[in-house]
Automatic annotation (TrEMBL):
Belongs to the LysR transcriptional regulatory family. GO terms for cellular component: protein-DNA complex. The keyword Transcription applies. It comes from the Bacteria. GO terms for molecular function: DNA binding; DNA-binding transcription factor activity. Residues 14-71 form the HTH lysR-type domain. This is Transcriptional regulator, LysR family. InterPro entries: LysR_HTH_N (IPR000847), LysR_subst-bd (IPR005119), WH-like_DNA-bd_sf (IPR036388), WH_DNA-bd_sf (IPR036390). The lineage of its organism: Bacteria, Pseudomonadati, Pseudomonadota, Betaproteobacteria, Burkholderiales. Keywords: DNA-binding, Transcription, Transcription regulation.
């Protein structure tokens, strides 16, 4: 019976051992001294260098009986080999940093309302504790975030509750903050309402006014019931939309839908332009826009809950670190220090 003789294919890439040998010979310029430095004998070192040259297809050293010098190719290659070895030597500590959540990438999406209250302190605290983690931030509506999460394209999202029931089994939810809705209106409308109701109004209640405390007199939903309502389309934020509609319904009112917009910044801009009023989370008062004021409502209104959502089965060390920051923030919001 005949057996085929195995064919030994030479390595197509050098190994790290060969690269270390190359650096030693290049620095010592002598095979004997390089071998002593490497705690080996000279013949295996010479063979390893020859094998490296054959693998690369170039001569790295010009050899004579008295000297060993780098060829021009070898001299140009030396800095790159040093860089490669340094990168290889840093691989283990970097892998351990990844395992501890001290390095890596976190892909985080957020609703536009979070940008004006919740998001900045979370990013500040996380950045202070995990400075080597690179954040990939994306603004998106809650429905888009849920689909991106389920598809595995983001790690976590800051969304407005509730979660779609069809995805609840595979997603984890951490509530962070609950805040009431307030009315955003043009300063011209606010001044007119204050004058009609005999409330104190700011001396500069004009189209150029901003929210200054003077404008925080509560108003009733009935006072703005005839104004067009600027709102998110229901298909993009059904939970948020339904809460707003319920507020009108409980007050016995039917809202007159005016403009629809998918970004809070756009909604507030439309309000500033006199296109109507909007019900927005209280934290949006941090969005200062000329000609817009924010008023609390006299009616009891439900709170908007914003929280963190992620895939239950896929929690990387980096994400676990972010969740820890969010839990601490949620606890601080629930139990503020006096």
């Amino acid at each position: 019976m005949l057996f085929a003789t195995p064919v030994v294919t030479p390595a197509v890439t050098p190994d790290l051992r060969q690269l270390r040998y190359f650096i030693a010979v290049a620095e010592e310029k002598h095979f004997g001294r390089a071998a002593a430095r490497l705690s080996m004998t000279q013949p295996p070192l010479s063979q390893a260098i020859r094998a490296l040259e054959e693998t690369l297809g170039v001569e790295l050293f010009a050899r004579t009986k008295r000297s060993v010098e780098l060829t021009p190719v070898g001299a140009d290659l030396l800095p790159e080999v040093r860089r490669l070895l340094a990168a290889a030597e840093s691989l283990r500590p970097f892998a351990q940093s990844l395992a501890r959540g001290e390095a890596g990438v976190l892909s985080l999406a957020f609703v536009s309302t979070a940008d004006y209250g919740l998001l900045p302190p979370l990013l500040r605290d996380f950045g202070a504790r995990h400075p080597r983690v690179r954040l990939q931030l994306t603004e998106a509506t809650s429905d888009v975030q849920i689909e991106e999460l389920v598809a595995g394209r983001i790690d976590a999202g800051l969304v407005i509750a509730p979660l779609p029931p069809r995805h609840a089994a595979q997603l984890s939810w951490l509530p962070i903050v609950r805040e009431p809705l307030v009315i955003a209106m043009s300063s011209v409308l606010a001044a007119r309402l204050d004058e009609t109701a005999g409330r104190l109004s700011a001396p500069d209640a004009s189209a150029d006014a901003v929210d200054t405390g003077w404008h925080r007199q509560p108003v009733s939903l009935t006072e703005v019931a005839d104004e067009p309502l600027v709102v998110f389309p229901r298909r993009l934020a059904p939970g948020f939309y339904d809460i707003i509609m319920d507020c009108y319904g409980v007050a016995g009112l039917a809202p007159r839908i005016g403009q629809e917009a998918i970004q809070m910044q756009t909604i507030v801009s439309l309000v500033s332009a006199g296109m109507g009023v909007a019900m927005v989370p209280q934290s949006l008062r941090n969005l200062r826009r000329t000609g817009v004021v924010y008023r609390p409502l006299r009616e009891s209104v439900p709170a908007i809950e914003t929280g963190l959502v992620w895939r239950t089965a896929e929690v990387s060390p980096v994400l676990a670190g972010f969740i820890e920051i969010v839990r601490a923030h949620a606890a601080a919001v629930a139990h503020p220090v006096a």
